[in-house]
Amino acid sequence: MNITTDEFKELTDLIQKKSGMFFEINKQYFVDRRLEARMAITNCDSVKDYLRVLKYDIKGMEIDALVESLTTNETYFYRELPQLNSFIESTLPVVMEQKEKSRVKNIKIWSAACSAGCEPYTIAMLLKEKVPDINNWHVQIIGTDICNKVLKMCRQGIYSDRFLKDVPALVKQKYFSKTEENEWAISQEIKNMVQFSHLNLVDRIKMRSMVGFDFIFCRNVLIYFDEPASKQVVSYFFDSLNKGGFIFLGHSESVARLSAAFQILRLNNSLVYQKPTL
């Protein structure tokens, strides 16, 4: 593909403005492959033509489609289990104890950039398996993503074998059933615990509507943003959390360089960030 440096910068600037995702020139090979596919679909013979399509697409449908094609949706159930165990064994009891003192038995959890839904569904299963009195609590688990394609998959709740490679046998037996197409359907009990919606993490207005959370999971997402966008998103997360709430990031990510507002805790070799209680 013949794309000039100026065209690549113009294209990636549009992507960043829309999604927050930042692609340096060394990622051009990755962008090129997705760009070629979108150019073929829109019948564009040159990058210049495609940029014109993006600029004059009033409804923004094509930039949405391009962003979706660039989204990496690598996910599976029970991913990074030690960190999830830190949530269940260390942070959840702290929040539940405080809630019980206040006689408010509700837990609100946000899985940001939830991809195919494995993370929020895993959280739901862990709550069912590890918290004896969870049925006495009002639990809200919300999964959001910028990609409508994966959100459709989330709501269907049907997965191939590769998504379940780390699911314990007894959990699989309890919460999944085989479909006629030889795939796995998650149980209605678990589906009922999770709500899914479309959300762009750099959408200021919509992000301000995300409030009252006790826990936020945003793992392996900030690595795709540049520092200013990451700082802005982390600021939104801080506002979204209740006092004393926790945020979990990917192992290669850190809030420390983005915000001084969080307290940093080390739990079972996992870092977790807490909004101060005062």
Q: For the report, how would you describe the main beta sheet?
A: 7 strands, mixed
| Spatial strand arrangement across the major sheet | 6-2-1-7-8-10-9
Question: What is the 3D shape?
Answer: globular
Number of domains: 2
CATH superfamily of the largest domain: Vaccinia Virus protein VP39
Secondary-structure element pattern, one letter each? HHHHHEHEHEHEEHEHEHEEE
Contiguous runs where pLDDT drops below 50 for at least 5 residues: none
Terminal-residue CA separation: 55 Å
Q: Which structural category do the helix and sheet elements fall into?
A: alpha/beta
Number of strands: 10
- If you consult CATH, what is the topology of the largest domain? Rossmann fold
Proper CATH architecture of the largest domain: 3-Layer(aba) Sandwich
Q: CATH top level of the largest domain?
A: Alpha Beta
Describe this entry's structure for a reader.
With 278 residues, the chain is an alpha/beta fold. The protein has two domains: 5-70, Orthogonal Bundle (Chemotaxis Receptor Methyltransferase Cher, domain 1); 81-274, Rossmann fold. The protein is 43% helix and 19% strand. It has eleven helices and ten strands. It has helices at 5-19, 28-41, 47-55, 61-70, 81-101, 118-130, 148-156, 169-175, 188-191, 204-207, 227-240; strands spanning 106-112, 138-145, 158-159, 176-178, 184-186, 194-198, 213-218, 241-249, 263-267, 270-274. It has a seven-stranded mixed beta sheet with strand order 6-2-1-7-8-10-9. It has a three-stranded antiparallel beta sheet with strand order 3-5-4. Helix 1 runs parallel beside helix 3 and helix 1 (5-19) packs across helix 4. The longest helix has 21 residues, at 81-101. It is globular. 32% of the residues are buried.
